[in-house]
Amino acid sequence: MALLVWQDDLNTGIEVIDHQHMRIVEMINHLQIAQKSMEKVAVAEVIDELIDYTMSHFAFEEELMEEAGYPFSHAHKRVHEIFGKRVNEYRMRFQAGEDVTDELRNMLARWLFNHIRGDDKAYAESVRRHLDQFSREHEQGGWLSRTLKRLFH
Hints:
It is a single chain. The chain is mainly α. The chain is built from five helices and no strands. The chain starts with 14 loop residues before the first helix and ends with a helix.
């Protein structure tokens, strides 16, 4: 499988979310690079980092949707929960000695791009409107800044 390349149709128009998605794409590519090194420890580290970062991203995204009053935020959160269980199953299979790297990478790439183009694009307008209004009403260092610091630092 070739390395993933970011495509413009994946942009949601929410800069912080787009950067997080780009980071996840980079991590999926790192998984392929680690796999080629044939070092199980390196692959395990990338899998753990990828899952941890993605779950933090989901938590951030869910807070944004709730703050914006997006009506389908609960359903979107459920999609994230199901995905979380699925990737943790891959992690457990890997830890048990199974080589799941190709399967995991393919699933992640398909799922991520489909999820961004569908579910994430669906909430983007609501969140953009909310963030625009919020930034007009509040100074720097508000909710968005605090949430970013809590989840990604």
